[in-house]
Design brief:
- By secondary structure, the chain is an alpha/beta fold.
- The protein has a single domain, classed as Amidase signature (AS) enzymes.
- Strands 1-3-2-4-6-5-10-11-9-7-8 form an eleven-stranded mixed sheet, sandwiched between helices.
- Helix 8 links the parallel strand 7 and strand 8.
- Helix 2 packs antiparallel against helix 3.
Length: about 475
């Protein structure tokens, strides 16, 4: 087996045909992790013993003729998705020794399929970042150039798949945290429709924005993983009913918000984007400019709404019930010491910002105004989808940047999310598919092409992304 090219679809055929066993497949990935991960740091913990047991169980299912789509498939899991009995730290000192007391719904579904869990992957602390440099346990490196970031916050999951250390992975996407690392690492990454995949068992960052989704080598693999984790969940109050969305008419019309792409995009990235658009035009798609005048406000709106939700969600980490505990003379002093020691700089920055925009006297000026503008941004998408099947734009404004290049400038780091936060604010599905590479210092760095669809429009995104994949770069 060639782990650099193997896909879920091919592995399924090979496992069912007994070309190799699930144990042999899993061991191959465990060997790759042992060989490569010291120089990449995609994993925070590798579960070799349990992975071998899960693989043996998968082989029994296959032998009994009970294999399903993901039986025996080795997966990596982001460190903010709960697996009962396993440490789940969200890459934070605050939860360094916390063990999950239950399975996330997506994990329950994967266990029912007989999937194999290789380990938990590194991430930006509590999913706050675009580079996986904010982890309390050190950064992850991009397999295409280890002097560069893999993107974030699901950078560990992306690096694991890109380096051949997992067949596919789960990540979470709050403002581009699946799509941006997929772009930087040359993968397919999907942010599903809000509510399509249960958030039960996902450590929350921004509750109105978060979604679990797949990172994989191919469009087909991303689709397979998405189909197995999607679906209504009564334990998630934001979960969508399975029959809520119906497939609409496919017009083969792609909208491009040209005015939004005029500034801030690397020229090489824009050239690849335009080349991909041209390939789709030749493949029979109609390309239309769409007016989405409120998209420039998406980034500032996101960085008001998201920190506000961060401030609320992270208030639970007080060292009393679980997590880091630091002795002190008073309760107030204990809170101060615990949160100072447990949270990293970026997490503290967003908590302070979120607390400010929610505070008395400022909530109307910032938070409620941002929510109103968010509704206008949603309307831009609703109006666009009356005329086009999907909206296309680059996944990120540039290729992977150097480690440490933007850590001292938070605003420069936040601008990495300019094209990705829009989908989370609107709640629509968005998919990044490789569009080619750009040359930097003798290395070929991947670049992603992003498609955004109407609510429940994942099928259409997969179909168009397949055409991007088929026509090649």
């Amino acid at each position: 087996m060639d782990l650099s090219t193997l896909t879920i679809a091919q592995a399924r055929k090979d496992l069912d045909a007994k070309k190799y066993s699930a144990l042999e497949l899993s061991q191959a990935y465990l060997d790759a992790i042992a060989k490569k991960d010291q120089g990449i740091h995609a994993y925070l913990e590798v579960w070799a013993d349990s992975a071998q047991k899960e693989a043996k169980h998968a082989d029994e299912l296959i032998k009994a003729g009970k294999s399903q789509a993901l039986t025996g498939i080795p997966l990596a899991i982001k460190d903010n998705i709960l697996i009962e009995g396993r440490t789940c730290s969200s890459a934070s000192k605050m939860l360094e020794h916390y063990k999950a007391s239950y399975d996330a719904t997506v994990i329950t579904k994967l266990k029912a399929e007989g999937a194999v869990f290789l380990g938990r992957t590194n991430m930006d602390e509590f999913a706050m970042g675009s580079s996986t440099e904010n982890s309390a346990f050190g950064p992850t490196m991009n397999p295409h150039d280890t002097t560069r970031v893999p993107g974030g916050s699901s950078g560990g999951s992306a690096a694991a798949v890109a380096a051949g250390m997992a067949l596919a992975a789960l990540g979470s996407d709050t403002g581009g945290s699946i799509r941006q690392p997929s772009s930087h690492c040359g993968l397919v990454g999907l942010k599903p429709t809000y509510g399509a995949v249960s958030r039960y068992g996902l450590m929350p960052m921004g509750s109105s924005l978060d979604q679990i989704g797949p990172l994989a080598r191919t469009v087909d693999d991303a689709r397979i993983l998405f189909e197995e984790i999607r679906g209504y969940d009564a334990q998630d109050s934001t979960s969508n009913p399975d029959g809520m969305y119906k497939a609409g008419k496919v017009r083969k019309v792609i909208g491009v918000p040209r005015a939004f792409l005029e500034k801030g995009v690397d020229p090489d990235v824009l050239a690849l984007f335009n080349a991909t658009i041209e390939r789709l035009r030749k493949a029979g798609y109609q390309i239309e400019d769409v007016a989405m005048p409120n998209l420039p406000y998406a980034l500032p709106v996101y960085y008001v709404v998201c920190p506000a939700e961060v401030s609320t969600n992270l208030a639970r980490y007080d060292g009393v019930r679980y997590g880091l505990s630091v002795p002190a003379a008073t309760v107030g002093e204990s809170y101060e010491k615990i949160r100072a020691a447990g949270f990293g700089p970026e997490t503290r920055r967003r908590i302070v910002l979120g607390t400010f925009v929610l505070s008395s006297g400022y909530a109307d000026a910032y938070y409620r105004t941002a929510r109103a503008v968010r509704d206008v941004i949603r309307a831009d998408f609703t109006n666009a989808f009356k005329e086009v099947d999907c909206v296309a734009m680059p996944t990120a404004p540039g290729p992977a940047f150097k480690l440490g290049e933007k850590t001292s400038d938070p605003l420069a780091m936040y601008l990495e999310d300019i094209f990705s936060v829009t989908a989370n604010l609107a709640g629509v599905p968005a998919l990044s598919v490789p569009a080619g590479t750009v040359a930097r210092e003798g290395k070929q760095l991947p670049v992603g092409f992003q498609l955004m669809g109407a609510h429940g429009g994942e099928d259409m995104l997969f179909a168009i992304a397949k055409d991007v994949e088929r026509t090649g770069a």
